[in-house]
Amino acid sequence: MSSHREAPGISQDPVADNADVYAFVSPDDPTTVTILSNFVPLQGPAGGPNFFEFGDDVLYSIFIDNDGDALPDITYQFQFRTTLQNEETFLYNTGPITSLTDPNWNKRQLYDVSVIYEKGRGNGNGKKQHHEQDGTGKVIGSDLACPPCNIGPRSTPNYDLLANAAVHQLPSGETVFAGQRNDGFFVDLGSVFDLAALRPFQNLHLLPMAAAPGVDPLKDLNIHTIAIKVPISMLTRDGSVPSDPLSAVSVIGVWSAASRRKVQVRDENGNGSKGSGPWVQVSRLGNPLFNEVIVHIGDKDRWNAVDPIDDAGEFESYVNQPELARLLPVLYPGVFPHLAGYTKDRADLHAILLTGIPAGIVPGFQNFTGSRPADMLRLNVAIPPTPAGSANSIGLLAGDAAGFPNGRRVFDNIVAIELRAVAGLTIPLVDPSYTPDAAASLLEDGTAPGAGRYQSTFPYLGTPHDGYHTPSS
Amino acid sequence: MERLSRRSFVKIAGAATGAAALAAAPPIARAAVGEEEGQPTNATTGVPEEPVVAYVRSVERGEVTVTSGTAEHTYRDRALVRRLMRAARREVR
Asked: Whole-structure pTM over 0.90, yes or no?
């Protein structure tokens, strides 16, 4: 999955598990950028009576680098708290929930949003660990309501009304939402983790079976989304709204993270645990699949704990010589002969994932943030959104410069894009002597998002599945 | 989760327990006048809202780390480390 349960440590801590990050110029509001950061993955919609929620003891952060030093210049922090209206019931709700203040809604979450601006500041070793700076940010929204989870037609009869009421316009200019949504990521997990036997091509696998359509196990699952829409002028280093894609000002780097207090003391009387000490990062995400597929399992927890500026060196080497590129020719004998013979460092993947693509490689496009290698989702905000009817889910690889790896839209087919890139399709961008294997441009996992996965307005991920109807019989 | 707002509760709990005081005080916790040091006892309260936690980081180096609020400080205090290690071996009678 993009980053669902991708590392040993965080797989045990779902509320802090940063599963996906999206960043794109808002298609219906193109003077703004929308950033989505997803947590609490793999939610079965019927999972009550304590339905899914954010962690009250987790600090959720979204970072933006706008000057190419792989350090955050803007940090948005989100902190939640849960309230009970009625302790004398076992129920999440005691009747239909028709508004965010409905007395029938028992277990609710509220949150505060703060922002830290730290342009040009370093602490001597070049790091700016914003997750250690809780309390120094400016509060820009407080006591903001989350919507309930989507329980079913009796409990949440007009769910979209509730979700829309939980979209908050902040006086500082941002728009925020935090709550349950339809998980937009699609992937044939079963085939990927069964020795990469991609279902459309499993007849070509080392252990062949008859080819079959892909299966997306996420299509019936929900997730919790933190969404923020920010005017572009509040994100760029000079406060402009750039129109020249080749200008360095046009590119921002985005990642997000979750942190927990260093010490948790559990109360022996069942009153939960209390935190002490600084925030310690336990989950991080920039480019999809980076920690999941690129970083080796023994280093995944450490990768989650450090910052993009720490990606140079060992983590960089995983990008330069990705394990999956060595496995594909073995798992699909005779299908990837050119890839099998390519032993150079993967400068194409290094650019896509760690520095951005410099100008001069893709005509009219760049998202280069400088030579410092760091895993960030890089978005060129001067590239306008592609109209829905002509957008291509293969993104930049298919000539749609508004899609991944120029940021990431909710519908981008990340699995196909990254499979093709790892299989060598993007090597000619930096090494014209290389001819990709014919299969590289065909790779996919046979899945598609299907109806209802997304919506055309903020927060762009679709209505979450309700627990009464999902899964269907 | 709580019905009382978290902020107001933290404020009350902090005032009641002096939760932040230890971090600002000298690193060695002093026994109250007339109180015998290091006597095992049973806890009389639940975990405070903002616990101050001290743990031995390195016996060999005599290092103790104290967390309070979102701060963390490490001290070299061999005497405190010796006392804590002695306390760790004791049982409540």
From this structure: yes
